[in-house]
Amino acid sequence: MVKITKKVKYLIIGNSAGGIGAAEAIRQVDRQGALVIISDEPYPAYSRPLISEYLARERSLERMLFRPADFYDKNDIGTFLGSRVKSLILNEHAVEMDDGGRIVWEKLLIAAGGLPIVPQIEGIEKEGVFTFITLKDAKAIDHHLNGTMRAVVIGGGLIGISVTEALMKRGVKVTIVEAKERILNTMLDEEASAREEATVREAGVSIVTGHTVVEISSEGKTVNSITLDNGQVVPCDLVVVAIGVRPCTELVSDTGIKINRGIVIDRHMATSSPDVYACGDVAEAYDFIHGENRLNPVWPNAYLGGRIAGLNMAGVRTEHQGGLAMSALKYFGLDAVSAGIVTPPDDSYEVLKNVFDDNYRKVVLKEGLVVGMVFVGDVEKSGIIYSLIKDRVNVSSFKQALVARDFGLLSLPEERWGPYLKMPTSGVISQVVSFERAGEIIVGE
Ligand SMILES: Cc1cc2nc3c(=O)[nH]c(=O)nc-3n(C[C@H](O)[C@H](O)[C@H](O)COP(=O)(O)OP(=O)(O)OC[C@H]3O[C@@H](n4cnc5c(N)ncnc54)[C@H](O)[C@@H]3O)c2cc1C
After folding, report:
1. 22 Cα–ligand 1 center, Å
2. pLDDT for 18
3. pLDDT over 60 at 5, yes or no
4. Which tens digit of pLDDT belongs to each residue from 282-301?
5. Is 433 among the domain residues?
6. How far apart are the first and last CA of the chain?
7. What is the largest CA-CA distance in the chain?
8. Mutation test of ligand 1: which of 46, 48, 246, 335 has the most ligand atoms closer than 8 Å to its C-beta?
9. Residues 280 and 165 in one domain
10. Which range marks the domain in which residue 163 is found?
């Protein structure tokens, strides 16, 4: 049984981007205060975006670790891995564990992430139906694979494309079923989606858009086909449900802590309950593009939110400047980057576009500020646009340069690029132009 009789100063639920960000920030300012991380996953923190490479057998767990194996010891962080928090007892500043143990805390961070959305489809409970969120999911699919197989992936978003690529690398023939008219429809605009779709089809994947799966059938216990809403039957040996994640708010649902779609937090990452903070996929943090709190379930937002929560928990009052929706994809060899508003809702926005060679660039402006972008193909310079978005730079005087073929740092006014010329190259790369796929930034850091 988990038992800590002494009160811990900091308790973190969730050992992933948000939890680690918070632990690191806490240890920057408080080396002594007792700090404990709990996770129901039994592994040291790993990069979740890399589970597709694990399934593809291109990466071992050791090469997915977010921090070196001795991170917890070196930072004097206690862990309960493979342990689940059952409930929060806010009036006693305690959590109750699944096995009945209790931990008492002074400051609590909920970094419990998201859970897969599983639709109510007939046959969804059958053997051979999987989700794809955790390393355990990747291991379960790996265990199921056996010779030449056919898979149906329900959902053509980031997770659906990522598991599709891994399955294809394992020799599985994949059909993606996407209910909307185009894949990657939340993060890309129409043109970029079309380019992605062409690339994915060229790789041999079948894509059905505008339809849903209404039934999963089996021979014995194991799936052998799905039926679409138009009656078409697609034979398959496994089904992966990848229609999205929802905030894992179960822990707080009966506590009175304010929840909207996710846990509601302020600019200091504090929830409506004193001494309780939240960050990452479980929380609705401030989005500076929309000027409101939103769900933005991506790794860098979770990590940064965790850092801000950690500083505030340790007594260094720090305000979150806000995050934004952003993605950097590289599936089937095609690079794409998107951030902020990619499809403007009305004509108060200005859109600049350019297509050259195999590249597509789009920048969305509002009142002289960049509020969104999509780059497909050569994405190297997207980091500069990203820094213009984040720094709220008025680009009116040089906006046409943003989508030009030769766009670069020198396209900006001197006061923007001048300071970087005095930095070592690595400083330029990390501070200005770096916009990497999340999993690749973190590994080996
Ligand atoms: C396949 C896939 C690909 C992705 N690709 C990208 C990408 O390319 N770029 C990008 O930016 N983002 C990507 N993401 C999203 C990114 O992984 C998430 O935004 C990020 O992991 C969120 O971090 P988090 O700390 O909020 O929560 P999570 O990473 O979800 O971690 C939360 C942890 O808390 C644990 N937990 C929950 N409840 C309890 C409890 N009661 N007791 C104990 N432990 C608990 C969970 O088991 C989990 O281990 C991807 C996600 C997936 C699944």
Report:
1. 14
2. 98
3. no
4. 999 999 999 999 999 999 99
5. yes
6. 35
7. 69
8. 48
9. no
10. 118-243
